[in-house]
Fold this sequence. Notes:
Blueprint: E1 4-8, H1 13-18, H2 22-30, H3 39-49, E2 52-56, H4 61-64, H5 71-80, E3 85-90, H6 98-110, E4 115-118, H7 120-123, H8 133-142, E5 146-149, H9 172-181, E6 187-190, H10 197-206, E7 210-213, H11 224-231, E8 238-239, H12 249-258, H13 263-278
Parallel strand pairs: 1-2, 2-3, 3-4, 4-5, 5-6, 6-7, 7-8
Helix pairs in contact: 6-8
Amino acid sequence: MRIIDLHCYPNTEPWIRCQGPYVDALAKYWKRQWTWKQEDEVVQDFAAAGVDAVLVALDLETTAKTPPCSNDYVHGMQQRHKDRIIQSWAAVDPLKGNAAIVEAQHAIRDLKMLGFHFHPIMGHFAVNERRFYPLWEAITALKVPVMIDVGTTGMGAGIPGGLGAKIRHAHPACIDELAADFPDLTIVMAHPGWPWTDETTAVALHKGNVFWEMSGWAPKYFPAQLKTDIRARLQDKVMFGSDYPSIPHARLFQEWRELGYADAVMEKIFHQNAERVLGL
C-alpha cells in the first residue's frame, strides 16, 4: 500500500536552528534529544519507513528571531531526492505583510511547491485575522492548498508563558471562518486538534473545502469518538502525516493497524485522499 506522509520536517541543521528557543522545550516534551541529522540520514529514514514524504518549510523569523528554514532550502532538498521526497510545503510569515505575498508567489511560480504550511501558535497569529486576508487572496489566486495546524503544540510547552505562544490561535473556529470566507481555498488541518477535537471534526464535516491530517499524535491516544468517525463519516476527509521526526514511523503504522480499520479505509487515509485532494 502506498503511504504519503504529508507532514515531514527536514530534521537537518537549518530546521533545528530555525526553532531557536523552542529546541530545549521540544526535547523535554518528546523526552529525547532534539538535534539534527544529515540530509542523507533523513532520506534513509523515509526509505526505511516506505513513505513518499512531503517536506515542510518553517519561518519563525518574526517571533523567534531566527533565520527561516527557507523555501529555497526545502525545495532544494526535495529536488535532490525526488524518488523519496515527492513535494514540499512552503512557509511564509503573515506578519511580514507584502513580503509574505512576494515570497508566496516565488514559492509557487518559481519553485513549484505544493502549497503552504502555517503554524499559528508559534507564529503568534490567527488565520482569521482580517489583516492577513490579502495573503489568503494571493494564495487563492495561486490555486494551491494550505495546511494549518490546529490544537496545542509541543513548541513552548511547559515553559512559563509558553515563550509568548497562545494555543487559542490554533482553534478550529479560525479555520471555520477562513474556509467560509475563502471557499475556493483548499485547507488541510494538521494534527487532531486537541483539546478541541470534536469542534475540529465539525469543521471538517461542515466545510467542503476543509480536510484533515492526523500527524503528531500516537493513534492509540486519539479520542474514542474520533476513532469512530475516521472509519465512518470522516473517511473521505482524513489523510496521513507523521510530524517527522516527532514519532517513529514504525510506531505510527503499528498503532494505525491496531485501530482495526478496513483496508479500503486505510487506502483512503494513507494515499487516496491525498492523491484526490492534493494531486499527489
